Amino acid sequence: MVKVSDRRVVSDRFRPFASDKSVGNHRFTFAPARTSADISVLRQLFRQAAKWGYINQSQIPDVDTPRVPPSPRPSYSPGEMTKLLKLAQKRMEDRKVNEEVRRDRTILYAYVTVACCTGMRPTELRNLNWGDLLGYREGLSKRLGDRDIRIRARGKGKSREFIPLEYGLSEFDRLWRMWKANHDDKEPADTDPVFAAPDGRRLTSINKSLNALLEAAGLKEDHRGKKRDAYTGQPRL
């Protein structure tokens, strides 16, 4: 067993342990981000041990945290985004597909348009309820330019409010009409999801529809070969 008092030995043995691990005949190498996170946790463990008096401050292993190389998510150029939206609209209006496919494509077109007009992330879009469209009900009888609407977005432990671009408001109207058509002309409650299945359940993913659209548009990968998905950054329209 290695004694904590031997700082150099601990450091030398700790470094390879943090980045590589063997199980049987298989050897695994952890990504720099994973290794960096693990080292940070263990460093805090040693510091806490020093505070409690189990070791001296000088006995804490001196291990460098590996540099995590930048890995930006793929994004779209304005031209690519325009191409994607035009194709999404064309596929939505295709009369050769059945009603179920057309409904899925309609929701996808609304999803992509709203994402572009708001900058909302997938988690925020998934969590969006009709009650989060502040002022929406009151403005239904007004033309788009006269509406005063704010969106209350809720993500992973965070929330924010903002004003969406006018261009995206018509897609909320489209989804509103779809809800009423599927629920005997009843309006959705404030707690009902904006992006919903025909039975009113919250849609948890649009990945299948989005992947099909990206493939059809030839935009599944960016210029680096990085695959695009629902988290890919988009320019504001």
TrEMBL record:
Biological process annotations from GO: DNA integration; DNA recombination
GO molecular function, one term: DNA binding
Stored Gene3D superfamilies: Intergrase catalytic core
Keyword Manganese assigned: no
InterPro entries: DNA_brk_join_enz, Integrase-like_cat_sf
Keywords, alphabetical: DNA recombination
Protein name, entry field: Tyr recombinase domain-containing protein
Organism: Sphingobium cloacae
